[in-house]
Amino acid sequence: MLQMPSWQRVVILLTVLVGLALALPNGFYTQVEKHNDATTALAAGATTSPELSADAAGWPSFLPSGLVNLGLDLRGGAHLLAEVNVEDVYDSRMDGFWPEVRNTLRDARDTVGTIRRQNAGSGELKLKISNPAGLEEALRLVRGLATPVASLTGAGSNDIEVSGQGDVITVTLSEAERVATDDRTMQQSLEIIRRRVDEAGTREPTIQRQGERRILIQVPGIGSATELKGLIGTTAKLGFHPVVSRTSNPNERVTGRQFLAPSIDPQEQGTFYILEKTPVVSGEDLANAQPAFDQNGQPSVTFRFDSTGGRKFGLFTSENVGAPFAIVLDNEVISAPVIREAILGGSGQISGNFSVEESTNLAVLLRAGALPAKMTFLEERTIGPELGQDSIDAGKIACIVAFIGVLVFMFLSYGTFGIFANIALIINVGLIFGLLSLIGATLTLPGIAGIVLTIGMAVDANVLVFERIREELKTSKGPARAIELGYEKALSAILDANITTFIVAVILFVMGSGPVRGFSVTLGLGIMTSVFTAIYVTRMLIVFWFERRRPKKLEV
Predict the structure, then answer these.
(1) Residue 287, φ and ψ in degrees, nearest 5
(2) CA–CA separation, 304 vs 306, rounded Å?
(3) Residue-averaged pLDDT of the chain
(4) Across the strands, what pairs with 480?
(5) Whether the predicted pLDDT of 41 surpasses 60
(6) CA angle at 311 for the pair 306 and 280, rounded to the nearest 5°
(7) For residue 460, what are the contacts with CB-CB under 8 A and spacing of at least 6?
(8) Are strands 77-84 and 115-118 parallel, antiparallel or unpaired?
(9) Are 322 and 367 in contact (CB under 8 A)?
(10) Which of 52, 93, 170, 537 has its CA at 20 to 30 Å from residue 129's CA atom?
(11) What is the DSSP letter of 537?
(12) Buried b vs exposed e over 141-150: b needs ≥16 C-beta within 10 Å?
């Protein structure tokens, strides 16, 4: 007899209901998206305005609210291709290396004489000693500061190369260290860009490395490429530098260990500060930064150092009470207060001529961290939502045409059983969207192509089963037995065909990227749901029908 245990029916029905419930929010995309945005804003402590509350209440909280994210080609957004100027990091490394070299050579002043740093570039550190006779000793001491390159490709190499001629010592990064530094710079840039984009609340960005020093950034749902550049293009390099002097001359001559930075304070128009190049504390020592208001009610940014940064800042301020220090952001002086007393709490406030939006953006940039190097934007595109809507409309038409074609074919070929297969097909598409919503996948045009392909493939298993049932009926088997044997004998062919296709989908997902991955995700999920609906859902519908009708003869 054709039977299906009660527990199996319950499990199948629950699975279908849960899958369709997860897919339901996508039928009310705009409404649910507003509800999610309002809920997130309220949870983050945003204003409880009537508009926010209404949006949050626009979708019942007891229903799932997960959505299939729309990709750049469907939703619109911004596309950038940036090149990272990795050479900037070489100079920063040498600037950071200078205090260590200086302190080491000071201990041997009797041999090498006085030390003076000279201007250099391209990742070089040049210093001049007053006693040329001590050159060999100076080279030995500086070479002793070298450390092994921290990468597999640079195994056995040191991070610096030291050479000397006359009374000048030149320190450069070794080739192996440059390669390792380039790789670290790219990885750090990728991570910081990703954090900045995530902090802004955008959904499912594509951020990936291309070639040796380029980064592809695609963010759906953002207004324009200019807005995206403003978010990620700022280095947001924060530093607290000792002040050497002030000047109104923008061409003031400075030594190699100093630099000239303009003040952006409106009350100090035309004022320039000569600062020590090496900061006391940098943005890397920040633990947190938040927008706030100062004692005058003006927008500002509060910050807190980590334990290391707090200790260094506390030591500096306690030793320099009465001296000014400058808060520098991207080589511009935000403010230059005088140290009134030691700041031992590890926290402070940056006040300036900020708007609320500027203080919020600055906090985001500082919290995400400073880009290690500047970026040059080689390509930028803004994709409007109208183009994405055209793609969605075209995808809908393709899905509808495929649906109608398959539904009509199955009904004309298999009659009542074809109707069962069609019902299972509709459930199958619902389950695909339910799974996409559950995992937070991004749907792109290739993803829609994968769904359309799945619609065509979803009935393959039913066709195999129904053809098997026809063969069994020709051998004078009873209806119940023919249906049972049809499912049993078709199972191996169904599994073989779908497993091989699923393996291809996995390979596309692992080896591919971007649109190829989107296609592989919908294809892989579609294979799993189509096998489930063909083997279990269609069979359950047939069992329900058979138990009710008890036909003496089948027409398949």
Answers:
(1) -100, -30
(2) 7
(3) 81
(4) none
(5) no
(6) 90
(7) 494, 497, 530, 534
(8) unpaired
(9) no
(10) 93
(11) I
(12) bbeeebeebe
CB-CB contact of 214 with 295 (8 Å) = no
* More confident site: 55 or 257: 257
What gap in Å lies between CA 80 and CA 522, rounded to an integer? 26
Which residue has 């600037």 as its token pair? Answer: 95
Share of the chain above pLDDT 70, in %: 87
| 423 backbone dihedrals φ, ψ, rounded to 5° | -60, -45
DSSP character string of 106-123: HTTHHHH--EEEE---TT
Q: Would you give the DSSP letter of residue 478?
A: -
Structural tokens at position 154 = 């640079």
- For the segment 414-424, the average pLDDT, to the nearest whole number, is 89
Q: How confident is the model at residue 344 (pLDDT cuts 50, 70, 90)?
A: confident
Classify the C-alpha dihedral 282-283-289-292 as positive or negative: positive
Q: Residue 502: its pLDDT value, please?
A: 92
Residues 340 and 319: their CA atoms lie apart, in Å, by 11
Instruction: Report d(CA 398, CA 395) in Å as an integer.
Output: 5
Nearest C-alpha neighbor of 534 from the set 423, 383, 396: 423
Tokens 């695909």 found at: 432
Per-residue HEC secondary structure of 208-250 comes to EEECCCEEEEEEECCCCHHHHHHHHCCCCCEEEEEEEEEECCC
pLDDT value, residue 45: 47
Confidence band, pLDDT 50/70/90 cuts, at residue 159: confident
Q: Which residue has the tokens 């100079």?
A: 91
DSSP structure class, residue 4: -
pLDDT band of residue 55 (cuts 50, 70, 90) is: low
pLDDT over 90 at 17, yes or no: yes
> What is the pTM assigned to this prediction?
0.58
Cα separation of 38 and 41, whole Å?
Answer: 5
pLDDT digits (tens, 9 = 90+) for 76-123: 778 888 898 888 788 877 877 777 888 888 888 888 888 888 766 667
Q: Which two tokens stand for residue 86?
A: 């990795």
Cα–Cα separations (whole angstroms), residue 125 to 100, 266, 340: 12, 36, 36
> In 3-state terms, what secondary structure has residue 290?
strand
- Please tell me the distance from the alpha carbon of residue 64 to that of residue 18, in angstroms, as a whole number: 10
